[in-house]
Amino acid sequence: DYPYLSSSANQIFDITVGIAASSAMSASSPISQQEKKINIYNQMAQVLAGHDHTGSIQLFDEDGNILAGGTKLRECYFFNFARLLSKDEIKKGSFSMELGNAVAFATANNTRLTITDAGAQNDFRVNSPAGEYGILSASAGEPAGVTSGLCGLIYYQAGIAVVTASVFRNVAKSDGKAEYNPTVVIYETGSSSVLFLT
């Protein structure tokens, strides 16, 4: 360790994006660096989620219940936190990240989601080759019309958060409020799609 007051400009985290080969985005018209995004997803899934009984790489599961099937996270952002922050592991139940997810850059903070692993100190999973992990959920943010839901996984010993790309999905509704909808595929040709992978 070292005295924190003498430190300068330390890296906090790396961020990258990956898509599963079974994602609707990988089957659509080519996107920039598509194969690299599939490779990133496969690399992270292999290390964090492991392989199934057939030897295939498992997809990230929204609720961590791999045997029951359920919703898979096919388009993800990966936040790899520096060892300076996570040391031996991220403390369970302490993770919180706030994201601005409005359509326009100028108003990005007008619509916010808070992503947490609330309650994870008593409710975490151990079926990962990378150690223990918790379920991330998005809580209602600003404005009041933003809804909540499961939105990712956090691997405590690895220091990696896997967040569905759907958190950046902002649908303008007739009442002018935004909605976080983790069940909607983010790739669309309409004006409501806010995530552009380049």
Strand order of the largest sheet: 1-4-9-8-7-6-5
* Distance N to C terminus: 38 Å
- Overall SS class: alpha+beta
Question: How many DSSP H or I helices?
Answer: 3
Return residue spans where pLDDT drops below 50 for at least 5 consecutive residues.
142-146, 170-198
Order of helices and strands, N to C?
Answer: EHHEEEHEEEEE
Rg (C-alpha, Å): 17 Å
Largest sheet: 7 strands, antiparallel
Net shape? globular
Fraction in beta strands: 25-35%
What percentage of residues falls in helices of 4 or more residues? 10-25%
Domain count: the total is 1
The number of distinct β-strands equals 9
- Nearest-integer average pLDDT: 77
Care to give the gist of this entry?
This protein is α+β, with helices and mostly antiparallel strands. The chain is 12% helix and 25% strand.
Give an overview of the whole structure.
By secondary structure, this protein is of the alpha+beta class. It has one domain (4-168). Helix content is 12%, strand content 25%. The chain has helices spanning 24-27, 34-48, 83-86, and strands at 13-19, 60-61, 72-73, 75-81, 96-100, 112-116, 133-142, 149-155, 160-164. The strands form 2 sheets. A 7-stranded antiparallel beta sheet has the order 1-4-9-8-7-6-5. Strands 2-3 form a two-stranded antiparallel ribbon. A hairpin with a 4-residue loop joins β8 and β9. The protein is globular, with a radius of gyration of 17 Å. It starts with 12 loop residues before the first strand and ends in a 34-residue tail after the last strand. Residues 142-146 and 170-198 have low confidence and may be disordered.
